[in-house]
Amino acid sequence: MSENSNSGYILYVSNAKSDTSQIINISKPQEIFRFRHAHAFIDNKLYLCHKFGTWQKNAETFTPDCYCEAEKGRTEYIYRINFSVQDSMPYHNIKYKWTACFIGARVSSPHGDEANPLHKDCGFYIAIGDSNKAVIYHGKERTWPHGCCTVKLPENFSTPHTLIVTDDGETITYSMILSTGEERNILKACLSGEDILVYDSGNNLVYKEKNNLRNRKGGYFKVFNHEAQTIISSVSIHNKELKTGCLKMVYKDSFSSFRTSEDFKLFYITQGESNCLINQNLLSLEKDDILLISAYDTYLMNENMPMTKVQFNKEFLYRYFSHDVVDNVLTCFNNKQIRLKGEKLSLIRTKLQNLKESENEDDRIPAFIHLYEILFLLSREKKGVIRDASHNPYVYKIINYINKYYSTIFTVDDIAEYCGVSKHHLCRVFKENMNMTIISFLNQAKVNNACKELVETDNQILQIALNNGFNSASYFNYVFKKQTGISPIEYRNIHTKKSK
Predict the structure, then answer these.
(1) How far, in Å, are 92, 200, 240 from residue 153 at the CA level?
(2) What whole-number distance in Å separates Cα of residue 364 and Cα of residue 350?
(3) Residue-wise over 90-108: b if at least 16 C-beta within 10 A, else e?
(4) What band does 191 get if pLDDT is binned at 50, 70 and 90?
């Protein structure tokens, strides 16, 4: 059932037809933000300083956790970002707070509260707004907010443009793709000598200052959005071998996987297993699980696996119930995952079926009644609930550590030592919050990456096992089949045929 979104409410129920589940690849470099809820993923774009449906006067960073260090004369890193900036004023009313988007290279830290343009020795930044000028920063003291120098832009970023940042180990070059498709240089910064030398698009020297970044051989690419309205469509990082011209992609995100919506969503899993990331927390889904996603939650999941989906917003329920009543039943969304058994599960199944059957009725009243009954039953359910673990520092630290170093982790002791807590305490906290053991999560991360390697490379099974932290092919086969239901060879054959 669907209704006109202009009326302020949407209700949608469907059963996915796919008979296969998907393992989400969680082993790529992570994206580090400053604030967990100061951004949103809408229409395959990343909105920075966007919270609960509105723009915020705040500072938010976006950093691929991918350290880049070019070798002089041998390799270079190329960073491409397509974005737009609006509601910015970095070039007038200078005595007030700036609002602009800062794009940095050789940034010393990926973390949001560190190595921003106002910090000393932060890295090399260019500040871009919705005018035809850009301002340069390189961590020199007393330059905030005025910057070190200004360069002209051939076009402004009030509409989406692609910015290209190239670091060859000696110089950092900024260029942009114009609306005509032509690539035009913006500036070149030489960082290998005693002084930083900045040249504009006409190769004119516009800035010279003592080089505080001379010993900075590498770093991170970072976006620091300061109270502007920045929308990012895609980001990629390539490593290029200068001798051969070979390009290797080390990071890419087009923001097509994550979702943010003003709607509430309920997913009832009817078959299969999969993973789901909600607000940077991993949940394992299996048959008969109920997944609850609140308005403006950021999530990543396979929505093509067999499931019943219900989507609505508050306005739909507000038409029939008081605000207090609606807000009360929506407390069920404080829990992200619910597992029911016996009569309770049968009752929910019946209510969902009733809701689905009401699609074909002219009278819309049964729909909201069935929906309310479902939410009311779930709001009273406490047992078997898996809660959002985002506020537990150990769990968050474990997940990030495993995602980055899964191939070199062999025992729980390695993780406990990294977190600085006992093995027993670590296992207990993780199991309480994630409803799975650390070893299960670790094996899941290893298998996720192995799946990718099976399809994208011709490596032997033993080599893939070793690459992903398994000591033998036999144990790899055992874990892989336990996770996916098929052997690595079967997985390769199936997905190789599909790709062809």
Answers:
(1) 16, 10, 26
(2) 18
(3) bbeeeeeebbbbbbbbbbb
(4) very high
* Residue-wise pLDDT tens digits, 398-416: 877 787 778 888 888 888 8
- Asked if 74 contacts 236 with a C-beta cutoff of 8 angstroms, the reply is no
Helix/strand/coil for 236: strand
Minimum mean pLDDT range among 99-103, 266-270, 341-345, 379-383: 379-383
User: Is the pLDDT score of 53 beyond 80?
Assistant: no
The answer to whether the beta carbons of residues 128 and 110 sit under 8 Å apart is no
> Tokens 């774009």, residue?
45
The C-alpha atoms of residue 278 and residue 378 are separated, in whole angstroms, by: 19
pLDDT surpasses 80 at 256: no
Q: Provide the percentage of residues in the chain whose pLDDT is more than 90.
A: 26
Q: Is the dihedral of CA 343, 349, 350, 355 positive or negative?
A: positive
State the Cα–Cα distance between residues 53 and 260, nearest whole angstrom.
Answer: 9
- Burial class (CB within 10 angstroms; exposed 0-12, middle 13-18, buried 19+) of 174: buried
Single out the residue of 440, 468, 441, 476 nearest to residue 452, CA to CA.
Answer: 468
By 3-state DSSP, what share of the chain in percent is helix, strand and coil, each rounded to 5?
Answer: 30, 35, 40
Contact 160, 178 (CB under 8 A): no
| Amino acid found at 43 | D
In whole angstroms, give the CA distance from residue 286 to residue 398. 22
pLDDT interval class at 59 (50, 70, 90): confident
Give the dihedral of Cα atoms 356, 383, 419, 280; nearest 10 deg: 20
Q: What DSSP string runs through 65-77? A: S--B-PPTTTEEE
- Residue 73 burial (10 A CB sphere; 0-12, 13-18, 19+): exposed
Q: At 463, is the secondary structure helix, strand, or coil?
A: helix
SS3 state of residue 27? coil
**From CA 22, how far away is CA 20, in angstroms rounded?**
7
CA atoms within 13 A on the CB side of 383: 4
* Structure token pair of residue 430: 């993780």
Dihedral in degrees, nearest 10, Cα atoms 275, 279, 280, 281: -50
Give the whole-angstrom CA distance, residue 445 versus residue 384.
24
**Which DSSP string corresponds to 269-320?**
E-S--EEEEETTEEEEE-TTEEEEE-TT-EEEE-TTSSEEEEEE-HHHHHTT
